[in-house]
Design goal:
The protein is of the alpha+beta class and 673 residues long. The chain has 19 helices and 37 strands. Helix 12 (294-303) links the parallel strand 12 (280-285) and strand 13. It starts with a strand and ends with a strand. The structure holds guanosine-5'-diphosphate (GDP). Guanosine-5'-diphosphate (GDP) is lined by residues 185, 187-193, 233, 285-286, 288-289, 321-323. Guanosine-5'-diphosphate binds at residues 185, 187-193, 233, 285-286, 288-289, 321-323.
């Protein structure tokens, strides 16, 4: 079709050019004068809009529905019918929470844009083709077209790191803040002792009376500058916070005992710090011991890719003795040096944002949380949202156990005045008023109860992303039963190279899949694979709660094949059939218009609308299809449980007979070995 001049179209539609230009403007078609040409599609929209004969779906659809609702049974039928006529099931479409462009919405509804514009006009809204309509409006209009419009809810904000977007003005207000340090390393290498030594040498001597209580973090001073230490050593705590979306640590100290050397948890700790992108300083501890061998430790570190500075690399190592309190100042100075490279800054004038690092219920004070202030300054009396709860700061207690009036960036502080006990990783945000704070908490609570879909958790999902054109490196965590298999696996995995996509092993180790592996997978969007190993109970609990799937292989080739196929984008999810319930046909009802409806009793499991179904008679399958309509009395229902009656109907099938067994089944993702 060709373009048409405005003047010609106006004539055809019995309008003046001026009238038509106004209409065109309303529907978003760019035409300036009577001599302008418009494209055939736009012309059609205007013709449809102005033509009185055009029948539109919404005018008739709702009416038809209400007709059937008020007259479910033909008036001539003498007996009341237990199960009403099944109505055509509305199709479901999904749209974004913040609305949808009119044109795209029309496509989804399989309708003409002009029909949507007309419907909006009836509601007094003049909309153009490229205009966004609200999700509520889309639901309203969709219903008229017999569509069920569902709204996509974005992922929970409560568990996400708060990205503070800054204007140039705000950037000017940024000031340096102290670094926040976490100590990690193998058990018994001296993490706790080192934390105690740093605290006692740097705090106790300067504060009268020393520290009376621990609040989960403390600050020390060196050369007039502050450093914040998190008092919960270990990579599990570190990664658990990260898995919840909270980035707290700026520098990781990996403690290695000079007499024991690098051990499995040392490697784990290094991998966790690396995966988080946090710079590492190695404290070579216990150098006072007669069998201490710092050079051996440095050698081991080099083999792990952490070449010490004095050997030409970039890893800072500091010999210390937590017991004899030597090397502590050097360690602290190195922390400042490494931190300076990161230019850590925050705006102390902003409303406070903080992260919970510890929480508990105190008998006297109620819910208590230790926060680390990320940005802004927190004051007594501030009203806040804290994860799914809210409150007003009643008291602030410093790391020295003293009451204080405010807490600045990177300062640890204990707060009271919270409505409920929050969880570590929860974000505190200061709000303008109580109403806002409560609303926000309520929203967070709702979001938290909707399951989080992790973007990558299986090779199949990764494969799908590759198929969809995303070029990604594949992050893997691999656990194997013995060192030999692990090394062979890693070597083979590193050789796989599909169209410049690579396997990136962020952690590997010998032994069962542990809690820390699951947390690391979650925090780093890595895929967790086991070879000939089991999964620890605690790890299983977390993986189930957080919906992180773990795949365990028994055959090396299968594992390598799956990884290769995932990188190629050709690994498909395998499904298996699972029978979810059985029902018996107890009665049948025949209707002249609809056909036969079976009145059933669920004898086991449940019946699920939309699931697959088969009908058996004398153990022989006589029908297979989909459970199209499922009712309890007059109501359409999603499912009916064992021990209840229901009505089942299938369009175009009338063969139900008393005594038939209806089997309901679902296709579920296969858990492969
Ligand atoms: P963690 O499990 O890493 O927290 O280790 P701890 O801090 O509990 O220390 C384990 C053991 O090593 C304790 O008995 C400490 O006293 C001892 N220890 C820690 N640091 C040193 C040190 O620098 N020298 C010596 N000789 N012993 C130490």
């Amino acid at each position: 079709m060709e373009k048409i001049k405005v003047s010609a179209l106006a004539k055809e539609l019995n309008k003046t050019s001026k009238e038509l230009l106004a209409i065109l403007k309303d529907v978003g078609v760019d035409a300036k004068t009577a001599a302008s040409s418009i494209d055939p599609e736009s012309a059609k929209i205007v013709r449809d809009l102005l033509s009185p004969k055009t029948a539109t779906a919404p005018d008739t659809a709702p009416k038809r529905q209400s007709d059937t609702a008020t007259h479910p049974v033909p008036a001539s039928k003498p007996t009341p019918e237990p199960i009403p006529t099944p109505e055509p099931m509305p199709k479901t479409i999904r749209i974004p929470e913040n609305g949808i462009i009119l044109k795209d919405f029309a496509d989804k509804l399989n309708a003409r844009s002009s029909d949507i514009i007309k419907e909006l006009m009836k509601k007094g809204i003049m909309a153009t083709l490229n205009q966004k309509i609200s999700s509520e409006m889309a639901q309203d209009i969709g219903a008229g077209f017999s569509f069920n419009v569902e709204i996509d809810v974005p992922p929970p904000a409560a568990t996400k790191e708060i990205e503070v977007e800054m204007t140039a003005e705000e950037t000017k207000k940024l000031k340096s803040r102290p670094p926040v340090v976490t100590i990690m390393g193998h058990v018994d290498h001296g993490k706790t002792k080192l934390l105690d030594t740093i605290r006692s040498t740097k705090v106790a001597e300067s504060e009268a009376g020393g520290i009376t209580q621990h609040i989960g973090a403390y600050q020390v001073q060196i050369k007039g500058r502050k450093i914040t230490f998190l008092d919960t050593p270990g990579h599990e705590a570190f990664t658990a916070l990260r898995a919840r979306g909270a980035k707290v640590t700026d520098v990781a100290i990996i403690v290695v005992a000079a007499d024991d050397g690098v051990m499995p948890q040392t490697i784990e700790a290094i991998d966790h710090a690396k995966a988080a992108g946090v710079p590492i300083i190695v404290a070579i501890n216990k150098v006072d011991k007669p069998d201490a061998n710092p050079d051996h430790v440095k050698q081991q570190l080099s083999e792990l890719g952490l070449q010490p500075e004095e050997w030409g690399g970039s890893t800072v190592t500091v010999p210390v003795s937590a017991k004899q309190k030597t090397g502590i100042d050097e360690l602290l100075e190195m922390i400042l040096l490494v931190a300076d490279l990161q230019e850590l800054k925050a705006n102390p004038d902003a409303k406070a944002v903080g992260v919970v690092i510890e929480s508990r219920l105190d008998k006297g004070k109620g819910p208590i949380a230790t926060l680390l202030i990320k940005n802004g300054t927190l004051y007594v009396g501030d009203i806040f949202t804290l994860g799914a709860t809210s409150g007003k700061i009643r008291a602030l207690i410093s790391d020295k156990g003293e009451r204080t009036k405010k807490a600045t960036p990177s300062t640890p502080v204990e707060i009271s005045g919270i409505a409920e006990v929050p969880i570590p990783g929860d974000i505190l945000q200061v709000m303008d008023n109580e109403k806002e704070a409560k609303n926000m908490a309520e929203q967070n609570k709702i979001l938290r109860s909707t399951p989080v879909s992790h973007t990558l958790q299986t090779l199949e999902e990764f494969s799908k992303e590759v198929e969809g054109g995303e070029v990604l490196d594949l992050n893997l965590i691999i656990k194997a039963d013995v060192q030999g298999s692990l090394e062979a696996l890693i070597a083979s995995l590193k050789e796989i190279n599909v169209e410049s996509k690579r396997v990136n092993i962020i952690h590997s180790g010998v032994g069962n899949i542990s809690e820390s592996d699951v947390l690391l997978a979650e925090a780093s969007k890595a895929i967790l694979i086991g070879f000939h190993v089991d999964i620890d109970n605690r790890a299983r609990e977390i993986s189930e709660a957080e919906n992180i799937r773990v795949k365990i292989y028994d055959i090396i080739y299968k594992l390598l094949d799956d990884v290769k196929m995932a990188l190629e984008g050709s690994l498909k999810i395998e499904y298996e059939e699972v029978v979810i319930g059985k029902a018996e046909v107890r009665q049948t009802f025949k209707f002249s218009k609809v056909g036969v409806i079976s009145g059933c009793f669920v004898i086991s499991g449940k019946m699920l609308r939309g699931a697959g179904m088969r009908i058996f008679r004398n153990n022989e399958k006589i029908y297979e299809g989909k459970m199209e309509s499922l009712k309890r009395f007059k109501e359409d229902v999603k499912e009916v449980m064992e021990g209840y009656e229901c009505g089942i109907a299938i369009v175009g099938y009338e063969g139900f007979k008393q005594g038939d067994i209806i089997e309901c089944f679902e296709m579920r993702e296969k858990t492969r070995k």
